[in-house]
Write a structure and sequence with these properties.
The protein is of the alpha/beta class. Helix content is about 40%, strand content about 15%. The protein is built from 14 helices and 16 strands. The strands form 4 sheets. Strands 4-12-11-10-7-5-6 form a 7-stranded mixed β-sheet, sandwiched between helices. The chain has a 4-stranded mixed β-sheet with strand order 1-2-3-15. Strands 13-14-16 form a 3-stranded antiparallel β-sheet. Strand 13 and strand 14 form a beta hairpin. Helix 4 packs across helix 11 and helix 12 packs parallel to helix 14. It binds pyridoxal-5'-phosphate. The site of pyridoxal-5'-phosphate has 14 residues, from helix 5.
Length: about 475
């Protein structure tokens, strides 16, 4: 009786939702028949609890935002405390403690490189794409202020992703998101991705990185004096299918940027805050960027906030008597105190809970679970960087034979996993795990079993996508 009542409640919420909401990154026509809509009543650790009481494991940390579990009490308490102290104030001409303290702490933990001046200033925005816009505009404007008016171009990597606003989209290379808006976008230069999946026969991941870096060198040479910045996602191109590359590419890209007087923008919006095994991915190449973009995990997954960290030299380039030479970019909610308080609480958890050490253990367990699944016939690649594991599915487990898009392997896998109590949101034919760091052994087992079953069901020749 109770179960029936809660199922009815879940149905009511679904109907009310579809009557009024337009969901992000969704072909709405697929709801509800092709694509189930999971109404979430509350979150608890790594789990999401539906209106009908069903428990679903968040295998993707809610678009890679959540670090320590849903409704994490310490972060929730910090937000509640801040809400009764100061909920918001504009950050132009005003200041508040959470913004200052967070900036101090971010600069403390930011990647450093021997012989290079550290990141020294923090500019806040309120989501990842906005953070990318800030970094791009800053890079361009900095050169303009220096009188280097020819440096108007950005270099980005093929298969990269930096967000959905027009500036961010212009430096992204995922046709599904970009193609339709192409007439509106500024022209970026794209360098080959160092993606190890693209390795030719006999090439190692490192060889592949060297080949891509040689191509980047040639591109920068061809456009000498025209490029203001290289933007890239260090170690993992997440939206591009969790494609991973050797850290040597990052080291070489840093050196090439220096040689060509080009700024390096590291977009660690998805990979920052412990996802790759170190606090920041740049650390694995021993480099520091000129501009570092952070968001998503910054607040532990509680509130939207972005931070762009810049060097003192970049900051100084905007100091002038002229207002036009200042960086006049702003968003109303820039540096929101609630979001900053959440971020401070999240950083405190890194300190108190030895998160990186625990993640290393969890990553080892994920590796073992993934190994078993890798033996399934359609799995062409299993790759892992820290707390990210991805499975690339092809028709026969061979690199050269992708599934035809109409098979909708990802969509089927999503549905099949959801029925088994796990939220996955495959990227095309790539299934991946990016769970909250608090995931325990029982939940890991569930993740492994549901993924295996979903893969088998999704690749079943006889299954239809209706
Ligand atoms: C690397 C990277 N940069 C930027 C963004 C954009 O962030 P947001 O979705 O908060 O606009 C994303 C989002 O997935 C991302 O993965």
């Amino acid at each position: 009786m109770l179960a029936e009542a809660s199922r009815a409640q879940a149905d009511t919420w679904r109907a009310r939702d579809l009557a009024v909401l337009w969901h992000p990154c969704t072909q709405m026509r697929e709801h509800p028949d092709l694509l189930p809509l999971f109404g979430v009543a509350r979150g608890e650790g790594a789990w999401l609890i539906g209106h009908d009481g069903s428990r679903v494991l968040d295998g993707i940390s809610s678009w890679w935002t959540n670090l320590f579990g849903h409704a994490e009490p310490r972060i929730a308490a910090a937000i509640a405390k801040q809400a009764t102290t100061l909920e918001h104030v504009l950050l132009a001409g005003c200041s508040h403690a959470p913004a200052v303290e967070l900036a101090e702490q971010l600069l403390q933990v930011a990647p450093r490189q021997p012989g290079r001046a550290p990141l020294a200033k923090v500019f806040y925005a309120d989501n990842g794409s906005a953070g990318v816009e800030v970094a791009l505009k800053m890079a361009f404007h900095w050169f303009t202020n220096r009188g280097e008016h020819r440096r108007t171009k950005f270099v980005a990597l093929e298969n990269g992703y930096h967000g959905e606003t027009l500036g961010a989209l212009a430096v992204g290379d995922i046709p599904l998101y970009r193609r339709i808006y192409a007439p509106l976008l500024t022209q970026a230069l794209f360098a080959p991705s160092p993606d190890a999946w693209l390795a030719q026969a006999g090439e190692s991941a490192e060889d592949c990185a060297v080949r891509a870096a040689d191509a980047l060198a040639a591109l920068l040479e061809r456009h000498a004096g025209e490029v203001c910045a290289l933007i890239m996602e260090p170690l993992v191109q997440c939206a591009g299918g969790m494609r991973m590359h050797h850290p040597s590419y990052l080291a070489r890209a840093r050196a090439l940027c220096d040689a060509h007087g080009v700024l390096l923008i590291a977009d660690e919006i998805a990979v920052g805050f412990g996802r790759t095994g170190t606090l920041f991915a740049c650390e694995q190449a021993g480099i520091a960027p000129d501009l570092l973009c952070l968001s998503k995990g910054l607040t532990g997954g509680f509130l939207p906030l972005a931070a762009v960290l810049a060097t003192q030299a970049i900051y100084d380039g905007f100091l002038d008597d002229s207002r036009e030479r200042a960086f006049l970019h702003s968003h109303s909610y820039t540096g929101n105190p609630l979001a900053c308080a959440a971020a401070l609480a999240s950083l405190a958890i890194f300190e108190s809970d030895e998160v990186l050490a625990r993640n290393r253990e969890t990553a080892t367990r994920m590796h073992m679970l993934a190994g078993g699944i890798g033996a399934l016939p359609h799995v062409a690649d299993v790759r892992q960087t820290g707390m990210i594991v991805a499975f690339e599915l092809t028709q026969n487990g061979d690199r050269g034979l992708p599934f035809p898009p109409q098979r909708r392997i990802g969509l089927r896998a999503h549905r099949a996993a959801l029925r088994r109590g796990v939220l996955l949101r495959p990227l095309g034919d790539v299934l991946y795990w990016m769970p909250p760091y608090c995931i325990d052994e029982e939940a890991l087992q569930r993740l492994g079993e549901a993924t295996r079953a979903a893969m088998i069901e999704a690749t079943d020749e006889d299954a239809t996508c209706g």
